[in-house]
Amino acid sequence: MTTKKRILTLAGDGIGPEIMTEALKVIKIIEQKKSLKFEITEGLMGGIAIDNTGSALPKETITQLKEVDAVLLAAIGGPKWENLPQNQKPEAGLLALRKELEAFANLRPAKVFSCLADSSSLKREIIEGIDILVVRELTGGIYFGLPRGEVKNTKEKTYANTAVYSESEIRRIVVCACKEAMKRKKKLCSVDKANVLEVSQFWRDITIEIIKNDYSDLELSHMYVDNAAMQLIRNPKQFDVIVTSNLFGDIISDEASMLTGSIGLLPSASLGDGSKAGIFEPIHGSAPDIAGTGKANPIAMILSVSMLLENFGLINEAKAIEKAVELTLNNGHRTADIAQTGEKTLNTTEMGNIICRNLTDSL
Ligand code: IPM
Ligand code: MG
Questions:
Q1: Which CATH architecture has domain 1-105+266-363?
Q2: CATH code for residues 131-258
Q3: What is the pLDDT of residues 267-284, one digit of tens each?
């Protein structure tokens, strides 16, 4: 690398700082073993930012975002801030962050580690070998649509949110999903609710046109979201890449994550057109119930570092991290969320240390 890549870390709330510590150890090893140097800055976001500055995404953090190549985010939110008005909650900061970086494409891979197939609540034969990528639209849809909030001049108190998609918003996310599918098994399933929603029918029409004109090598299917939720449990191996809107993707990706045994294992990348920093974060939340107990699984956070490095073009380093995680799991090391009854469990730091040792040995 000619110029030093810059990373902004946002550790956030709950288990966030604990798992971020493990991610930073992994980055340090990559730097040392590969003679690389990243410029790492810390920033404030989420509940901790509210406590310190009064805002979930403070101005100072917005300035920092503009000066980095990637954002590594741990987790935000918690009961302490739950009763704040909607637009002042930690979650509002996360939405503002995604919007600020125009990170419209959220890639959420759900892959089963064979040695963990028994930690899933589904049978081994249903889930073994699944490798799904959910491509979720992240900066539009009902999360951002207007009008939103209280509806005036109604007989009784009424609230609304609006599902809106423009043609360009649909195009860019579907094209992104097509590119991902081309690198994989070339199967794309677009999930919508076109039997009821006009916005979904529009999504479907545009998707068909894109595949017909530019990606005719892809096998395209469409599924209503209720059926997709059912099919993911019934026969998850039928899926390769799923592309869907913001809210459907939020739900479907949590469901897909549970197929793999634990939500504590899955990373994500939120990307724009490449002109701004991408966001790399675990798909799980801040788990305030286990914060400070050492029970958090650092794997999703560590795999988020792998996705970040891949985005920097450091493919071998990204793969090495994945391999180190896999080896650690194959060797039987477990945090509480993935341990079977009676199995010895490691705490967050111990798990991080073993992954780091395996990574060091492999580089
Ligand atoms: C996610 C989370 C967020 C979302 C919340 C915390 C705002 O559930 O990243 O999936 O709904 O997008
Ligand atoms: Mg979610």
A1: 3-Layer(aba) Sandwich (3.40)
A2: 3.40.718.10
A3: 999 999 999 999 999 999
